[in-house]
Amino acid sequence: MIYGIADKHEFRIIVMECNEDHVHLLIDCSPQHYIPNIVKALKGNTARFLFKEHPQLKKRLWGGHLWNPSYFVATVSENTEAQIKQYIESQKSGE
Questions:
Q1: For residues 38 and 27, is the Cβ–Cβ distance under 8 A?
Q2: Has 87 been annotated as catalytic?
Q3: How many Cβ atoms sit within 10 Å of the Cβ of residue 11?
Q4: DSSP-derived pairing of the beta strands 12-18 and 23-28
Q5: pLDDT digit string (tens) for 27-55?
Q6: Which residues, 6 or more positions from 92, have their beta carbon under 8 angstroms from its beta carbon?
Q7: pLDDT tens digits, residue range 5-24?
């Protein structure tokens, strides 16, 4: 689903790893992309889908929200991309 959202909004997910309470993404997007809109698309679409498919989730979540409104974003240079990618990939094994 997340890759489909990326395709629809014309950005690319280079690497993604999910933990029990957060998601790490390395995204490639053009300078014209507005980062808050990317985050809104990812969080909004996934929440709507999950609540539609599993309405009981809303009752079990703090305040009925799937996602925390906060997020962290940092730009990556060609020099640091490999390090960030390695960090994200290491999250799946808990390294």
A1: yes
A2: yes
A3: 19
A4: antiparallel
A5: 999 999 999 999 999 999 999 999 999 99
A6: 17
A7: 999 999 999 999 988 888 99
Residues 2-90: name the CATH superfamily.
Answer: Transposase IS200-like (3.30.70.1290)
pLDDT for res 93: 58
pTM summary value: 0.84
Sign, CA torsion 54/55/58/60: negative
**Options 3, 34, 71, 87, the catalytic residue:** 87
Can you state the percent helix, strand and coil of the chain, rounding each to 5?
45, 15, 40
92: tokens are 């799946």
39: tokens are 């985050």
Task: List the structure tokens of 11.
Answer: 């950005």
